[in-house]
Amino acid sequence: MPPLLSSAETSALLSLLPHEDREFEAVASDFDAAFEAKDRFKACCAIVLLLEDKTLLETPQRLALWYVLWHAFKSSQLADNPFVSVALDAAAADGAPPAERCLLLQLLQGGGLAGVARLTLGTFAASAEGLPRAPPPDAAALRRRYAPRPPASLETASSFKRAAISRLLPDEPEGPLGGGAAGGGGGAPGAPEPERRRREALLRGVVGSLTFAGFEPAWQRPRPPVLTPAPEELRWLAPPTGQELLWDSTAGDDPGRLAVVRELVAKALKGPLLPAQQQQVLLHLESDPKLVHSLRLGPEQLPALVENTPVVAYEVLHALARSRSIAAYYEVLASMQMSLHSMEVVNRLSSAVDLPPEFVHRYITNCIASCEGIQDKYLQNRLVRLVCVFLQSLIRKRAISIRDLLHEVQAFCINYSRIREAAGLFRLLKLLE
């Protein structure tokens, strides 16, 4: 069995044994500094072992240790102190020193720690020695005062506990419950008087133990009957296999608001919305972002929404950013035809959420390829300017790591170096290098 305290903890505890010129409060402060809260109970147990030997410590040292036992549990009530029974025995002992009994009575009778905290150990011991010797306290009265809650009686116990059979058996081969040769019962007429009284006392002790911690009778609960199923419930007794369960994502939603947003989004898939209609959709989505999951808007419908109403498309993607289905929407957005509206949506998303690097790189590659595939010079120059401004914005916001696309973007800038925005993007790349 491991020791109660380690060698270092034992040294710390012994260092608390003070001289008589130390104050009670100073000793308690040293105890708090030497032991953490989780180790103080072990230290108090060791203190009790030291106090059990009446000759090991001097009176000032014993006073200090008793004070520490009280100080360690000062935040709880006196009855909750685990060492109150030890103090009761010490206070009621016949040979207790006067100073020690005086201190314990003051603590037990509610005097508290404040009355002696600033006194030195020697001063308290000398003052207690000068007082007339007090008689031992009424230990029974003190125990009743600080006794724990009384156990439940037979009258308050349940019928199952009252009928329980004790797990304890008396060590009596021919006891009153065993039907021995001496009369077979506790009050047999033929038994001698001392033997009869002994058996009756044993019987009372055994009967008194047949109460709480024992083998209780089983609680027989009838099995509930099987209810006859209703005709519409018969199909669920053997549900058909291969059926897909559908989750109603509209449960709990406001049907009026949801219907309005669905109608406006359906219009946005066919053509641009009016500013008032756009604002109405945005207000509903901002007030309840979960509403976007009930719009039945698939990834294949995203390009139409981006071209017709990019503001609503951004709000939908922003609400879906933490869902599992966002990857499918990013896939469609990266592969759709490059346009001003799609760059607007991606640019706003880069400021609001952390876009996947593979999506950003794929979208930039798609933009570069779209510019190179246009035959109309005027439209090509316009799109190159838009792409260059878009890339500069992403680079300044640090939304992308341009190192993975450095050579491809530099080649793009060199091909269109006649355009001022392409030259500015090339200088920015050189600064980053």
UniProtKB/TrEMBL annotation:
Q: List where in the cell it is found.
A: Cytoplasm; Nucleus
Task: Report any one BP term from Gene Ontology.
Answer: regulatory ncRNA-mediated gene silencing
Chief localization: cytoplasm
Q: Which domain of life is it from?
A: Eukaryota
Q: Which UniProt keywords apply?
A: Cytoplasm, Nucleus, RNA-mediated gene silencing, Transcription, Transcription regulation
In residue numbers, the region (Disordered) covers 169-196
What InterPro entries has UniProt attached to this entry? Answer: CNOT11
Entry keyword annotation includes Protein transport:
no
The answer, when asked if Cytoplasm is one of the entry's keywords, is yes
Which regions are flagged for Gly residues bias? 176-189
**Entry GO CC:** CCR4-NOT complex; cytoplasm; nucleus
Which PANTHER family does the record match to this protein?
A: CCR4-NOT TRANSCRIPTION COMPLEX SUBUNIT 11
Q: Member of which family?
A: Belongs to the CNOT11 family.
What is the protein named?
CCR4-NOT transcription complex subunit 11
